[in-house]
Amino acid sequence: MSTDIDWQHELDSSFGTGHDVPPGHYVAAGRTAVRRRRATAAVLAAALVIGGGTVWAVAPGGSTRSDAPIARSGPTPTKEPETRAARKERLEELRAARDARQDQPDFLGAPATLDATGLVLAPGAGPVLERVENPMGYTAAQGQSLGIRVMFRGREKYSLLTRDPDGDTSMGTNDATGDFAGWLEGRVRSQRSLDVGRGDSPDAGVLATPDEWLSLGPGGSIESASPFVAVMEVREDVDLLGSFATGADRAGVARLQITGTPTFVAWRVVDGRLEVVEGPGPFDSMAAFVGWAREQYASGEGMR
After folding, report:
1. Other CB atoms within 10 A of residue 240 CB
2. Gap between the Cα atoms of 113 and 115, Å rounded
3. What residues are paired with 57 via a beta bridge?
4. Side-chain half-sphere of 157: how many Cα atoms within 13 Å?
5. Residue 234 in contact with residue 254, Cβ under 8 Å?
6. pLDDT at residue 165, rounded to an integer
7. How far apart are CA 45 and CA 43, in angstroms?
8. Mean pLDDT over each residue of the chain, to the nearest integer
9. pLDDT per position as a tens digit, 131-169
10. Which of the two ends of the chain, N or C, has the fewest CB atoms closer than 10 A to its terminal CB?
11. Residue 38 dihedral angles phi and psi, to the nearest 5°
């Protein structure tokens, strides 16, 4: 018995018989691969044309081709150095913008304020129904003042506006109630007390005490002791009754204007020294003041 093995026969028989494949099958598969590669190349070319971006051609097998398009980008723009003239112009513009913001008035909820040129209405304010020029009686060195009756956001308001020479402003405002003239007079008195209390008003010291409002002039005449006090009327033939003139060499009454506000006083001279007592409220006339003062001294209460 032969032990030789026909290895070629054994190998051929292990694959089975199978069916014969025509050559055209392999040719068709190759053509399909060619078409697939061509379609891929067309897509890459379109991306380059339309997007203008960077595309790297990849050869079969994953290796990059050395002749693929290189990413393109424009040169980085460089900013020219700012000249000294341009820098100066820019700084001037910034300063002008800052000054414009600082010049905007601050109304603090009031319908108006005062600037160097006069009245400035807040947004939503107007019309001005009534105005009283300089109710505080300020001189040019003291500043400005204005009283107004004005509509503000659909409501009527009363306001007293002041501005000192340094540009500082104050606005006193209330809803319109009662008589505007009476409200303004009371507000002026309140503002005058604030001016004196701060000690920085030209009125400070002048309005501190009534005894400093008047002085004895040549021949004993009653005269103003301050440029802020105007003597409008003096009467010496008035008896206020009671104790006012007791021990006095002379006595009488006077009507004054103190920084524009009417003020009534009683005066007396004791041992050559002038004493002045202010009436506490507004009076329509000298006769009204004298009648009230007589009742005060007759009752023993006096005016102080």
Report:
1. 22
2. 7
3. none
4. 25
5. yes
6. 87
7. 5
8. 75
9. 999 998 888 888 899 999 999 999 999 999 999 888 888
10. N
11. -65, -40
Q: Which of 94, 146, 148 is nearest to 115 (CA)?
A: 146
pLDDT of 104 higher than 80: no
Phi, psi of 255 (to 5 degrees): -110, 125
Task: Strand 229-235: give its sheet, edge to edge.
Answer: 229-235, 250-258, 261-270, 273-278
Strand partners, 144: 163
Delimit the domains of the chain by residue range: 112-198, 210-298
Burial of 138 (0-12, 13-18, 19+ CB in 10 A): buried
- In the predicted structure, residue 254 carries a pLDDT above the cut 90: yes
CA distances (Å), origin 45, targets 48, 52, 58, 70, 91: 5, 10, 12, 14, 53
- On the CB side of 132, CA atoms within 13 Å amount to 21
Task: State the pLDDT confidence band at 79, using cuts at 50, 70 and 90.
Answer: low
Nearest 5°: phi and psi at 210?
A: -60, -30
Its pTM stands at: 0.38
